[in-house]
Backbone:
């Protein structure tokens, strides 16, 4: 049956379908509807914590305890969660973290939309790590890719980041979620409590700290990179709309990709849904068929730098920032390219 | 499990010989054995923060200051298991103070053992929330000019609470109050007062572990049935 759903509600419903049993979070616009929805559910545990630092550490704990777990926030809260995200990578615990982006830095423009956390979702914590990041662009996709975020998280035993933005999270669309097919990945390791494992942020082997062993570190980091990369290959989500007559490829995601979809009449459009690890081969292949590449995103060119790195060339940026985006403005900028 | 089976094979505590932490570790093993439990043990960061890694049990060595919310998450998922946090004063009361406030208010059924050595010891001996007024540390070269935190008063802001204070020298008392804390239904906090041998005791003229133990024995007294504790009282204060 078709229903009118909000982006944030679709995330909450998707999480429940994926088998989430524990949610902890702190209120923040424009992510709060996720917790409002989950607070009313009787068959999951829900907790409003004292801050986002508590929320991320609590979902790490509940996930270790055997429950699929999620937290959701916006940019300022996502910043507070960064240390926890690094820790979750280090001890390899699956969790899903939703970041509904708003304009920053700091309190910024509450709560106008933005895509300013692209780099934060990839590089926000200290040290090296390799997060999987999804960024859908419709209410239906939020339902679907929340489930996939849980699956990728379980399969990789790492936190998976689900990006959204103020527009998409508060967008209402008609969806028939019963018609959407999905598979569920179940937990691959025993819950904390009955074994003799030691989960530590320290570089360790067999539960014993080996914090001066550079050879172990090099082995460990390469192994983690390889394992997560391999799992990510099972989640190569993107949309490529090729226009045979176009000499220009537009690369865009999230709300920006929604706004520019009418431009497919004139341009080719590549929309990565998995932002990280970057879909290098797929983007290169699409780019080869075009003379010009333009990245459209609501920030100062965060993903553009990734595209330039892959293609080893300068690419053009169109970036409607400050919380306002319109097709008319984008058309105007494109005509000047 | 036999007592020795509670120790993780292949690890040796990093602590100075004579540090009160050895006594706490030893007693916790005895307590788990006596109660016939295999709890989930968790620690934050610091000298005491290394404790979790020494138990041959499912254990977590978390982020600095964030072990209480992590333990609360574990407990909410594993309500059937005892959950014991062992961490230091800086970790639990400084950087993690906000979580202590709220997890204790929520009354989550975990036991928190806060070993109070009155400084940030692992980083060399800086001011901590429990540093006594006037004490010289690396970051208070002229002596601390603020009063230390009173954990009992913090916990007493809740209607229901369990607080115990003990020392590694009063071994039987320590054993007894930790058992009571584990058996308490709700949030229980045990403050184990000791002195960092290197960065605190030496400045007080107590240059051997024996002198520290003597000082603790002479200064702290066990009291019974009080609803408040004076600075050098050891005992249990609780409200159900």
Residues:
């Amino acid at each position: 049956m078709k229903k009118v759903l909000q982006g944030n509600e679709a995330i909450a419903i998707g999480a429940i379908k994926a088998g989430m049993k524990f949610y902890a979070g702190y209120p923040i616009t424009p992510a709060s509807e996720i917790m409002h929805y989950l607070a009313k559910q009787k068959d999951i545990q829900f907790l409003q914590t004292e801050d986002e630092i508590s929320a991320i550490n609590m979902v790490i704990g509940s996930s270790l305890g055997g429950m699929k777990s999620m937290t959701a926030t916006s940019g300022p809260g996502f910043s507070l969660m960064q240390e926890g995200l690094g820790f979750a990578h280090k001890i390899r615990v699956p969790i899903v973290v939703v970041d509904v982006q708003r304009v920053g830095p700091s309190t910024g423009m509450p709560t106008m939309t933005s895509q300013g956390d692209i780099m934060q979702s990839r590089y926000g914590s200290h040290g090296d790590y390799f997060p999987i990041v999804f960024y859908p662009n419709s209410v239906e996709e939020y339902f679907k890719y929340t489930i996939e975020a849980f699956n990728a998280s379980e399969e990789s035993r790492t936190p998976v980041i689900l990006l959204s933005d103020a527009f998409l999270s508060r967008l209402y669309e008609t969806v028939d979620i019963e018609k959407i097919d999905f598979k569920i990945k179940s937990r691959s390791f025993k819950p904390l409590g009955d074994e003799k494992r030691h989960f530590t942020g320290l570089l360790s082997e067999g539960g014993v700290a080996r914090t001066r062993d550079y050879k172990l570190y090099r082995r460990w980091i390469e192994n983690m990179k390889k394992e997560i990369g391999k799992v990510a290959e099972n989640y190569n989500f993107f949309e490529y709309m090729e226009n045979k007559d176009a000499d220009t490829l537009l690369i865009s995601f999230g709300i920006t990709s929604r706004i520019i979809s009418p431009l497919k009449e004139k341009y080719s459009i590549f929309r990565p849904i998995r932002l990280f690890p970057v879909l290098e081969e797929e983007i290169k292949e699409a780019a080869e068929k075009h003379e010009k590449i333009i990245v459209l995103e609501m920030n100062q060119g965060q993903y553009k730098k990734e595209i330039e790195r892959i293609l080893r060339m300068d690419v053009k940026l169109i970036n409607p920032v400050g919380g306002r985006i319109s097709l008319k403005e984008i058309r105007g900028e494109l005509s000047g390219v | 499990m036999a007592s020795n089976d509670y120790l993780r094979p292949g690890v040796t505590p990093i602590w100075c010989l004579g540090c009160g932490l050895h006594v706490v570790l030893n007693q916790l093993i005895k307590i788990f054995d006596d109660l016939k439990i295999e709890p989930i043990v968790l620690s934050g960061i610091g000298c005491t923060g290394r404790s979790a890694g020494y138990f041959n049990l499912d254990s977590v060595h978390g982020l600095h200051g964030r072990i209480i919310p992590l333990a609360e998450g574990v407990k909410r998922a594993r309500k059937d298991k005892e959950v014991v946090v062992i961490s230091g004063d800086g970790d639990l009361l400084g950087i993690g103070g906000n979580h202590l406030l709220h997890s204790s208010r929520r009354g989550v059924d975990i036991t928190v053992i806060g070993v109070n050595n009155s400084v940030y010891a692992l980083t060399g001996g800086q001011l901590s929330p429990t540093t006594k007024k006037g004490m010289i540390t690396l970051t208070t070269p002229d002596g601390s000019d603020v009063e230390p935190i009173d954990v009992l008063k913090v916990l007493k802001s809740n209607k229901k609470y369990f607080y115990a204070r003990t020392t590694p020298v009063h071994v039987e008392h320590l054993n007894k109050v930790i058992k009571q804390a584990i058996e308490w239904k709700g949030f229980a906090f045990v403050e184990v007062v000791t002195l960092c041998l290197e960065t605190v005791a030496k400045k007080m003229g107590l240059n051997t572990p024996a002198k520290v133990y003597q000082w603790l024995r002479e200064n702290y007294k066990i009291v019974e049935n009080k609803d408040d504790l004076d600075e050098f009282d050891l005992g249990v204060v609780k409200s159900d």
